[in-house]
Each structure stands twice: as structure tokens, then as C-alpha cells.
Amino acid sequence: MQLKILSTNSLPKSIAFLINYALNNISNVENMLKVISGI
């Protein structure tokens, strides 16, 4: 699924997808750190 999105010629969509993916990863890491640190 992700590879199909990245392999398309629509560059703006690919960039937006990567940005959303990165933001989701950052949010997940922050949530994990909160759980680990007990906040």
C-alpha cells in the first residue's frame, strides 16, 4: 500500500504522505515515552 503511494508520479501526494507518516511516528514515540516515564 505504502509502496504504491510512494511510486506514483504525484509528488505532492507522496510528500504529504511522508509528512503524515513522520508526524504519526513522532506522536507514537512521544506517547511511548510518556508511558515509560509514567506521566
How widely separated are the two ends? 35 Å
Given the C-alpha coordinates, what overall shape results?
rod-shaped
What's the rounded overall pLDDT mean?
A: 81
What Rg is obtained from the alpha carbons, in whole angstroms?
A: 14 Å
Q: Helix and strand string, N-terminal first?
A: HH
* Major sheet summary line: none
Poorly predicted runs are none
Task: Give an account of the 3D structure.
By secondary structure, the chain is mainly α. It contains two helices and no strands. It has helices at 2-7, 11-37. The protein starts with a helix and ends with a helix.
Label this structure with key terms.
39 residues; mainly alpha; 2 helices; 85% helix
Short description:
This protein has 39 residues and is an all-alpha fold.
Topology:
Layout: H1 2-7, H2 11-37
